[in-house]
Amino acid sequence: QVPLVESGGGLVQAGGSLRLSCVASGGTFSGYAMVGWFRQAPGKEREFVSAIYWSIDNPHYADSVKGRFTISRDNAKNTVYLQMNSLKPEDTAVYYCAAATRIRVDYSMDYWGKGTLVTVSS
Length: 122
Hints:
Layout: E1 4-7, E2 10-13, E3 18-24, E4 34-40, E5 47-53, E6 59-61, E7 69-74, E8 79-84, E9 93-100, E10 111-112, E11 116-121
Parallel strand pairs: 2-11
Antiparallel strand pairs: 1-3, 3-8, 4-5, 4-9, 5-6, 7-8, 9-10, 9-11
């Protein structure tokens, strides 16, 4: 298990952009089958945002972020990114990076970072 460390959260106005980063601290993502982003808004359950299958690099997105968010990776930096554009107040949440040892159709993950807070003001 490699610790996952998120960064890049902050306060942004509606319509703005942020890029989140997730680093596999002290290791690589190569041992994982799937890496993704989830979020949990205040008073709500954690929800899937985006994921990427490591071996074939195809991205998946929740309908609520499709067309606005982009997941990408930099193997050399052991980093997965979530570029978030056209942010809305309803995107406000703690965003978590997660990884799975095998691909699951429900995007269930095995390992989680501690999260980074994104706040979108109206």
